[in-house]
Design goal:
The chain is an alpha+beta fold. The protein contains five helices and ten strands, in the order ααββαββββββαββα.
């Protein structure tokens, strides 16, 4: 009898406290999962941006190592605008293979490398095969250093020489509205690539200057 008399259920207040603590735990768990998801998305986005920038710069630098001024029936060796660039090179595998293989490649047919941006996607084309880089960009800007100044377009046949350097700047993300050049801000990635075979000592010894 005493055992039955001492036994009692939860009061309404205790039940409300228990429910409140459970809600707090569930809320904390939801916030943790959301933060973890954001971290994973940020890491994946950053990795894609790094891979895209490295791939773009690597491809362009390799092509410019052996770029030609005149591609004969293929046209200008280096031609481009502020959103795209096309390079004709005598070989694209510099630094690999035996001396005999490199010498054979140097006299092989010209290879075209094209890089362009459209609707936030960067497309790289080599040897007729195209691939879209994984990262989306708000903008890509290409500039060409020649005769002591930057230009937004270049044609090696018209200039009679190669550009001394090519700069590619990238702004990652999705643009809410079309960007004007004045609204670009600081690029997320930028690299200035010197062209070894540019005419004159300035081309061979070109040193990129920050803030140009």
């Amino acid at each position: 009898m005493n055992r039955r008399r001492n036994a009692r259920g939860f009061t309404l207040l205790e039940a409300l406290i228990a429910v409140g603590m459970l809600m707090l735990l569930l809320g904390a768990l939801a916030m943790f999962v959301e933060d973890l998801t954001r971290t994973r998305q940020f890491s994946a986005r950053t990795a894609a941006q790094t891979r895209s920038a490295d791939a773009l710069y690597s491809v362009l630098e390799a092509a410019l190592q052996t770029a030609v001024v005149d591609g004969g029936p293929l046209g200008s060796g280096v031609t481009g605008t502020d959103r795209s660039v096309r390079v004709l090179s005598s070989r694209t595998d510099a630094g690999s293979g035996s001396v005999r293989e490199l010498a054979r490649a140097a006299f092989a047919a010209l290879s075209a490398t094209e890089i362009g941006e459209s609707s936030g996607n960067i497309t790289v084309t080599r040897g007729g095969a195209s691939s879209v880089l994984p990262a989306t960009v708000r903008a890509m800007r290409v500039r060409y250093w020649s005769e002591g100044g930057w230009a937004d377009s270049f044609d090696s046949l018209s200039a009679g020489s190669l550009p001394q350097a090519v700069e590619v700047a990238l702004w990652f993300g999705v643009a809410a509205a079309p960007l004007e050049e004045d609204n670009f801000g600081t690029p997320d990635r930028v690299r200035t690539i010197a062209v070894p075979d540019a005419a004159g000592a300035d081309g061979a010894n070109f040193m990129p200057e920050a803030g140009l």
